[in-house]
Amino acid sequence: MENIIKNELEAQRQLNIINELKERFEKEYQKTGIRKTFHIVTFGCQMNSRDSEKISGILKQIGYVPTDTEDADFVLYNTCTVRENANNRVYGRLGHLYTLKKQRPDMLIALCGCMMQENTTVEKIKKSYNFVDIIFGTHNIFKLAELIKTRLDNEKTGGDHSDHMVIDLWNDTDMIVENLPNDRKYPFKAGVNIIYGCNNFCSYCIVPYVRGRERSRNPQDIIDEIKALAQDGVIEVMLLGQNVNSYGKTLNPPTSFAKLLQEVEKIDGIQRIRFMTSHPKDLSQELIDVLGSSKKICKHLHLPLQSGSSRLLKIMNRKYTKEDYLDLVERIRKAVPDIALTTDIIVGFPGETEEDFLETLDVVKKVQYSNAYTFLYSKRTGTPAANMDNQVPAEVAKERFDRLVEEIHKSVQNNSKRYENTVQEVLVEEVNEHDSSLLTGRLSSNMLVHFPGDKSLIGKIIPVYLKESRGFYFIGSQL
Ligand code: SAH
Ligand code: SF4
Ligand code: F3S
């Protein structure tokens, strides 16, 4: 209770600051006739995409208008640090931003997201990229207006640039501050956070360190949010969390993800329900039963395998074996025979032998995934795996990676062939990026189809004939 009051007071305090800045920006606009622009670059997963919508909501409320390029008054990078190459991309782009900033000295640059939760990153930015104006992390996005205000007020007091940098980073939080402005990317589908953080500490993974401990949102808050979305025209929701299957365990009274799904199912207007991500160790029989009986949950489950070797899975701290995983897949397929399974796999985890890798290939052959995201192991400082002394040489990992991708392609092709010459319900999402005479829609199985059609169909669920499978997508036609 105490926490709920604390969160609501904080939300109110932030709304006051947003309004104060809004007045300030409006006065400037009256003088100049020019609105200030902003641009957000989002790296990483859907958690970050959802956070960027919150950031965008706050900025629009203050009076900033969105723009498509980084030539803007305010540029924000919402960063990811799950693998080393995600970090490198940020540093590369920052160099380019510096050139832009030299041409427009009033430009503000903010960095936020998972990379900022690492001390070494922040030290590096203070030292080598001191033109950055604001740094914040994953736990205090709701404070953005306050940080902008602090930065603008600093400006007035003078001093050299490095004194101006506003840095606000929290190691962890028990706060969930809601009901702040929000800007959805699509009018007809929306992501909804249900659980923040992660407690699993898979030995290779940085996420628990940068996203903090698991915090489940109150079920009523989630239901209220989805009802409001449905009222607003949303027909598909994606429930988000690093491990949705542990939703509700720490709430008082405790509840479960399966129960939450049943409540979401009852909401009028919502036609499709998706969720990401399911940890195999916590996927209950109760949830499988709900998947089997639901009319709205999409026929797609993302079930990260990481490795098919029980020996490696133990060292990865995944808490399931190859056999547990295969048994789970069998039970899921029995309940929902036409479900599309997708996965994440890491190649080259420390100590991975050819035998371990063959176990992974074996699972891929047996499960026949509809899609799989494959990653070369990337050493993350601070995780247990980073200190393991048997790191796999890059060329060995690369060779296995290529073999894995080849095997996955085969199952992707086989799976999509099965849908050829069938009619499927498709949520039409957008005009095709490359060919504006085509629309792009998504099947319940999460696969994409491109077909000729009018953009008035965007946001509707319609039947589409799948003429030809091209592996990861289909070419279709309207009926
Ligand atoms: N919470 C999700 C995954 C989030 S990270 C889950 O547990 O399934 C997304 C994917 O990145 C992971 O599934 C894993 O395959 C990959 N990944 C995480 N850390 C990695 C690392 N250090 N190197 C390579 N891939 C990694
Ligand atoms: Fe990382 Fe494991 Fe948590 Fe997923 S469950 S975010 S892989 S620690
Ligand atoms: Fe990356 Fe953070 Fe997501 S590290 S994968 S953006 S939780």
UniProtKB/TrEMBL annotation:
Subunit (UniProt): Monomer.
User: Which residues are noted in the entry as [4Fe-4S] cluster 2-binding?
Assistant: C198, C202, C205
Q: What name does the UniProt record give this protein?
A: tRNA-2-methylthio-N(6)-dimethylallyladenosine synthase
**Gene3D superfamilies in the cross-refs:** Methylthiotransferase, N-terminal domain (3.40.50.12160), tm_1862 like domain (3.80.30.20)
Q: What does this protein do?
A: Catalyzes the methylthiolation of N6-(dimethylallyl)adenosine (i(6)A), leading to the formation of 2-methylthio-N6-(dimethylallyl)adenosine (ms(2)i(6)A) at position 37 in tRNAs that read codons beginning with uridine.
> Sorted alphabetically, which SUPFAM superfamilies does this protein's record hold?
Radical SAM enzymes (SSF102114)
Which SMART domains did the record assign? Elp3
Annotated keywords:
4Fe-4S, Cytoplasm, Iron, Iron-sulfur, Metal-binding, S-adenosyl-L-methionine, Transferase, tRNA processing
Question: What is a single cellular component term in the Gene Ontology annotation?
Answer: cytosol
Which residues of the sequence carry a binding annotation for [4Fe-4S] cluster 1? Answer: C45, C80, C114
Identify the enzyme class. transferase
PROSITE patterns registered for this protein in UniProt: MTTASE_N, MTTASE_RADICAL, RADICAL_SAM, TRAM
Q: Which Pfam families match?
A: Radical_SAM (PF04055), TRAM (PF01938), UPF0004 (PF00919)
Compartments (UniProt record): Cytoplasm
- Cofactor requirement: [4Fe-4S] cluster
Cofactor comment: Binds 2 [4Fe-4S] clusters. One cluster is coordinated with 3 cysteines and an exchangeable S-adenosyl-L-methionine.
Reaction catalysed? N(6)-dimethylallyladenosine(37) in tRNA + (sulfur carrier)-SH + AH2 + 2 S-adenosyl-L-methionine = 2-methylsulfanyl-N(6)-dimethylallyladenosine(37) in tRNA + (sulfur carrier)-H + 5'-deoxyadenosine + L-methionine + A + S-adenosyl-L-homocysteine + 2 H(+)
